[in-house]
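### Sample
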Amino acid sequence: MPPVTPPGLRSGALAAAAGVNLQTLRYYERRGLLARPDRTLGGHRMYPAEAVTVVRVIKAAQRLGFTLDEISELIDVGGHRHSSAGLHERAAAKLAEVEARITDLTVIRDTLRQALDAGCDDLASCAESPECPLPFTVLADTKAGPG
């Protein structure tokens, strides 16, 4: 009777189906994001079909700004392990972070536009000009205060 091969996907098939490379799969395994797969008698990894979904979820969560540590905790919640917060709370917190970054980036964008409009070509010259919109002019005034 021939040896029984565990059902599932070999590493290359999983990587292709999930749109990642083999090193990514190994890394996710080491981080505990992806369960260690069964092995064939020849030592090949055999992942269950649902591993494709797990890897896709990890990649989607990364694109949404979640770190791998945060994703690990979210996956733990899905696995009914104990975690401090579920998807709803973490998504709300991530949204607040993103909105804060957008606010910061909007200020940066507006300041850079003002610098372009003011014709700032040289930082040293611009820093000495009262029309310069860049924040270091405020710092220069503060440091040059009463002496």
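The beta strands are 9-10, 38-39, 45-47. This sample (MerR family transcriptional regulator) is used throughout the tutorial notebook.
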